[in-house]
Amino acid sequence: MDWLSPASALIGAVIGAGATLLAQRGQWRQQLEAQDRQARRQLYGEYLSALHEAGERLHLLAVGVNEPDQGRFVEAAHDAFLGESLYSLRAQLMISAPKPVAHEVRASLLAMRDLRDCIGRSFLKGSEEHAAAYRSVRDSQQRLRDLMRADLVGPE
Hints:
By secondary structure, the protein is an all-alpha fold. Helix content is 82%, strand content 0%. The protein is built from five helices and no strands.
């Protein structure tokens, strides 16, 4: 019966090492999830900022603050829109964001492009067309912010 004591010690050591490895794996997984969430938070902020900046430049055109030479609204609207890196940020989000967020990222970009095209056709602030395009941008960005916030908070 002198083998019982070493066997018990060995079993205890295996259980202890296994529990430690399991706990470390859980901590590692939590750290990876926190890093992923932080990377998405930064990317979400960059994309929302780029959308906002493009919207501000389009707004300046729509209210007549920045009036293009010879009525070249199409070129001016495209220039205002392309000043930000919306397309490259959208591409990054499409591969790193959850599906509902990625879908709304695309929808928000399309809404902003519709506003750009509306202004490019000289439908400026005060017109029905501009009001409808602006509402679409505002609503899609609200849905996007809500989805991004829900993703970053996670299950409650």
